[in-house]
Amino acid sequence: MKTTELPRWATGIALPLLNLLSALLVSALVIHLLGESPVESLQILFNSAIVNPEGLSYTLFYASTFVFTGLAVSVAMKAGLFNIGAEGQMYLGGLGLTLAMLAFDATLSPWLLIPLAMLASALFGAGWAFLPGYLQAKRGSHVVVTTIMFNFIAASLMNYLILKLIPEGDQNPASRVFTEAAWMPRLGEWFPALGDTPLNIGFFMAIAALAIYGVVISRSAWGYKLQATGLNQHAAHYAGVRISRMIIVAMLISGALAGLAAVNSILGSTHYLSLNFPAGAGFIGIAIALMGRQHPVGIFLSSVLFGALIQGGFDLSLEKPNIPQETFIFIQGLIILFCGAMENLYAPVVLKLINATRKG
Predict the structure, then answer these.
(1) What is the pLDDT of residues 17-40, one digit of tens each?
(2) CA 145, 224, 7: angle at the middle one, nearest 5?
(3) What average pLDDT does this structure show over 223-251?
(4) In the chain, where does DSSP find H-type helix?
(5) What is the DSSP string of 154-214?
(6) Integer Cα distance of 287 and 198 in angstroms
(7) How would residue 161 be classed by pLDDT, with cut points 50, 70 and 90?
């Protein structure tokens, strides 16, 4: 008997892998056109980002930030919302964290400072997501449009505020460095093989966030209501779900997770608020949510992939001058293209193969 729908293993594993392979094949062609060997380039990238312990440490550091932005986009997607504002929400999360640090880093212990910073970053990120969520729920303003606009507003607001936070006489567009008591403990202190890298306990926070997300989405009544809202708002409404409240709550949680992404970047690495510190992490979260199919394991693997592209791409561009760093922005775009806009490109072929196998 022929099936008309793909099984979960096909949509969750086979299609993302085929899409990723397609993106990598196009990338290999581009590298070949640049005059370099795709196979040798892939080996350099893999060794630099995965095999080398210090390189792996950097990969996991980047992945820790991407997990939070990927989760932020995924929670909104589960409610049928496309939150493109994770970049701005992460930016405001960094502001909340910084204000808490500037006020209390000289008086509180690390046991209080780091939780306070996390709370402040989550609240500021959630606050920045509230208005787009409210406008979507109460006024019908599309969340895609409002979150894009809020990214630009956040950038302009932060440009103004950071100038106010610059210590007198300092020309660097950044706040002062936080006291060492506010720095996140680095894993290299416990595992010397990781080297002197910024990988910190934020990695374990990211793993915990993935686990909590997986349990809440798949094992709780609220997670069921969230997914029902995303699948069919009318049916969810008749089942007793308050759609407006669900949309606002989903956006608040999404913004809070995006805000928390700033903790790894600031407290784990720079230890001060700098201009444009998100560096596109919020937009990468969109690709991670799409490629990972909003599943915790998929989100983690996608985050590691993008972390590896950044770390391995940096070293590859140093060893192969013909391959500029911008090439890996292009590769990220290809992954977004194949896993997002063209995510079902291979669905008909896979469906035919499955039906042919069953028939045989």
Answers:
(1) 888 888 889 888 988 898 888 889
(2) 90
(3) 94
(4) 8-9, 15-33, 38-46, 53-78, 86-104, 110-134, 143-165, 202-219, 221-231, 233-238, 243-265, 281-291, 296-319, 326-336, 347-359
(5) HHHHHHHHHHHHSPTT--SSB-PPPPGGGSPPBGGGT-GGG-S---BTHHHHHHHHHHHHH
(6) 24
(7) confident
CA distance 13 to 147: 30
The whole-number pLDDT of residue 302 equals 92
Evaluate whether 277 touches 262 at the Cβ level (below 8 Å). yes
**pTM of this prediction?**
0.91
Question: DSSP characters for 210-226?
Answer: HHHHHHHHHHSHHHHHH
Q: What would the pLDDT profile of 37-87 be if each residue is shown by its tens digit? A: 888 988 988 899 998 999 999 999 999 999 999 999 999 999 999 999 999
Q: Does 319 score more than 90 pLDDT?
A: no
Question: Residues near 44 by Cβ (< 8 Å), separated by ≥ 6?
Answer: 312, 315, 316, 319, 320
Which DSSP state fits 135? I
pLDDT beyond 80 at 264? yes
- Bridge partner list, 274: 174
Tokens read off for 144: 């895609």
Backbone angles phi, psi at 200, to 5 degrees: -135, -175
The predicted pLDDT at position 328 comes to 78
Return the closest-CA partner of residue 73 out of 89, 49, 51, 61: 89
Mapped onto helix, strand or coil, the DSSP state of residue 274 is strand
List 200's β-bridge partners, or say none: 186
Task: Read off the tokens for 286.
Answer: 């969109």
Which is more confidently placed, 274 or 328? 274
Pull the structure tokens for residue 73: 């986009």
Structure tokens at 270: 């720079």
What fold does the segment set 41-347 form as a domain?
A: ABC transporter involved in vitamin B12 uptake, BtuC (1.10.3470)
